Amino acid sequence: MRIIRGLNPRSILRLRYLPAYLRDPSVSLLKKGMIMLGILYIISPIDALPDVIPLVGWLDDIGVIGILLASLMRELEDYGSFASRQLAK
What is the pLDDT along the chain (89 residues), one digit of tens a residue? Predict the structure, then answer.
């Protein structure tokens, strides 16, 4: 549950860096692709555990959401610090 406790208004504000992060050519395509694959997996009807199975079918989606949020927040925090330093120069 550390991920849920880590979501506070300050960390959610990091999402403002997402459009710039996705457009930035210095960010690797692998990082951008992993974010997009995570989002596609969540919205895709094809899952490791079918969603028609009550509760159990949602567990893989919840896990992917947790991993995606944790890595995205960490990446955006690093990116925000980097962008702030670049603007200060």
Answer: 444 555 667 777 788 888 889 999 989 999 999 999 988 988 888 877 787 777 888 888 888 888 998 888 888 888 887 766 666 55
Tell me how crowded residue 29 is: count the other CB atoms within 10 A of its CB. Answer: 9
Q: Give the chain's domain count.
A: 1
Cα–Cα nearest to 43, from 61, 29, 60: 61
- DSSP character for 7? -
Nearby residues of 49 by Cβ (< 8 Å), 6 or more positions away: 56, 57, 59, 60
- Predicted TM-score (pTM) of this structure: 0.70
- Residues 7 and 12: their CA atoms lie apart, in Å, by 6
Q: Write out the residue range of the structural domain in which residue 31 sits.
A: 2-88
| Matching residue, tokens 């969603």 | 51
